[in-house]
Amino acid sequence: MGSVTLDDVAKLAGVSAKTVSRVANDERSVRPDTRERVLRAIEQLDYRPNLLARGLSGAHAYTIGLLYDNPNAYYIISMQQGALAACDDLHFGLQMRPCNSRSPALAEELRDFVHRSRLSGLVLTTPVSERTASLRRLATYDIPFVRILSAARDPLDGFPCVYVDDRDAAYAIVAHLLQLGHVRIGFLQGGKHHHASAERLRGYKDALRDYGVPLRKELMVEGDYVFDDGFRGARRLLDLAEPPTAIFGCNDEIAAGALAAAQSTGLSVPYDVSIAGFEDSPFSRHSWPPLTTARQRADVIVECATRMLIARISGDEVDNAGFTPELVVRGSTAPPRPKSRRRNRR
Amino acid sequence: MGSVTLDDVAKLAGVSAKTVSRVANDERSVRPDTRERVLRAIEQLDYRPNLLARGLSGAHAYTIGLLYDNPNAYYIISMQQGALAACDDLHFGLQMRPCNSRSPALAEELRDFVHRSRLSGLVLTTPVSERTASLRRLATYDIPFVRILSAARDPLDGFPCVYVDDRDAAYAIVAHLLQLGHVRIGFLQGGKHHHASAERLRGYKDALRDYGVPLRKELMVEGDYVFDDGFRGARRLLDLAEPPTAIFGCNDEIAAGALAAAQSTGLSVPYDVSIAGFEDSPFSRHSWPPLTTARQRADVIVECATRMLIARISGDEVDNAGFTPELVVRGSTAPPRPKSRRRNRR
DNA sequence: TTGAAAGCGCTAACAG
DNA sequence: CTGTTAGCGCTTTCAA
Fold this sequence. Notes:
The structure is a homodimer of 346-residue chains.
Chain A: H1 6-13, H2 17-24, H3 32-45, H4 51-57, E1 63-68, H5 73-90, E2 93-98, H6 106-116, E3 121-124, H7 132-140, E4 145-150, E5 161-164, H8 166-180, E6 185-188, H9 195-210, E7 220-221, H10 227-238, E8 246-249, H11 252-264, E9 274-276, H12 282-286, E10 293-295, H13 298-313, E11 321-323, E12 326-328
Parallel strand pairs in A: 1-2, 1-3, 3-4, 4-5, 5-11, 6-7, 6-8, 8-9
Antiparallel strand pairs in A: 10-12
Helix pairs in contact in A: 1-2, 1-3, 5-13, 6-7, 8-9, 10-11
The structure holds a DNA duplex (16 and 16 nucleotides).
């Protein structure tokens, strides 16, 4: 292999391999001058520890696993960036994998994944993080994990987590629409098996209630987190006898579908209908008009979770953390057009 | 760890550890009944080989590295899917990492990455794959790799590769526009340090030449593979005294920017101006109107490259492979409006 | 503060 | 066809 080993360094520095190991791992119990000598030898030989050997002999491989079950590419990349930032900083490796969050043997699959590579722990993103029965089993396998979930506050269930307040952010979006003067606001739901969808729906309902606007069943359309469902759902809303003047899509992809639906019907956004999304994905910036949305920093959130996980693995106590996505107002939302001037379609 | 080891299985099956290893690795030299007995023991104990140990003792870790230096999330996810498909199928692990393709020490960084985890080899995507000096150095380190690059045909330079014919695909797009009757066709270039940009430009020029349309300097705008450059570039083109009737963006993100620019100017696509992209990313499907583009199956291409790499590592000879992205005509392109009826702007 | 010995779980190289 | 012996490069004992 031509790889430099601990022993090579030890020989050059005139110390034992164990001492080099101590220096490489930044342990304190090394005399400064010895450390200096070793560091010089490391530098000179351009020594790099072999991660496999370290992982094999140690209790774990200084590598964390990041699992996702999500079709959203931006979300995944964003998470990867956040996890890498933390891992690189703390000298941990990263293994990323998609998985099927609805598998009945989820806990066992995760355990095997961990054991095969001696992973130090797992960061679980939604919706994997929402399979509580599996998580409980995972905990019995003594696998450290931190989960990211959608909740208005700390669930206090004993498992560490980073919680994202989707309800509050959705509330802010709907409040923004209400303040603009909208009363008939359509809501395009996201995938049923995501807690986040329910939380965002809750935000929608709470906002309407607080502003004294009655909930209309016909303005809430079910669907998944995909463009086509946004398109179809918006189409349906716009075809109502009394169509909504604003539509809130459960994420940006859905909102992009709604935007396309409006434009394909000859409606102009935001003049004929306002549209808002959720997530601040490039979709929302790169459409025309750009979408009002809630900025969800998946990278920051995952970096936080990863740091928490590594801290736990290192034996530290850590507190749970919370984030709230921030309202971003852009060109796709405006006050409703006075009724008399509203354009006649068909 | 509670992990089951080779020895546990060996004891239960009444054979040596080496025999279990042979069965686990699917080596042929095991008598069927012995194999059967071992398999039963493996099943019974739910044995899973430890990848670190295997990697440490073997010549390599049965894991390939995938490197990218690309801001395009869809592209990355798509590649990851392709690589995972091949790796899962062939029982290899996958490590993905971004890297800086313009680092002068690129080869050394890649070497360290490989050595630290004893990677079996690397799949290099553009533009990393285009740093030929670094690749030559990488080869001297005896690191197997397969590169994916943009070229009209096999470069025959001795390094294995999968080549993608961007020129041909770009030619097809421009030919499509020409056949619709467009003569003034704008071209929004992509990042200069991507070969693909040059190849797509070549396709543009070749098509114009073959159709006897003179090249106009003022219709070719420089920029990077980002939305904003597409927006600005298109804006500039549309502001010309004699604006183009069609715009070809070097990728879908650029085209999305052009689309937004057109719409923000009050132009209607495709009636006032046709727009085409390249890549078939979700952008192109999720905009309104959806974009005519060239379908580039990054997943298929990377899966192919990954399989080639693993074959090479296994000692097989492999031939280079080539792909040509396929023209996808959608709503954003149409014949040019007769001059007399062209809408007056400003 | 340092070092020597043992071993992590597996495979390579050789025997039988 | 199967088993034995030695490591892979590191960390964990435990002793000096």
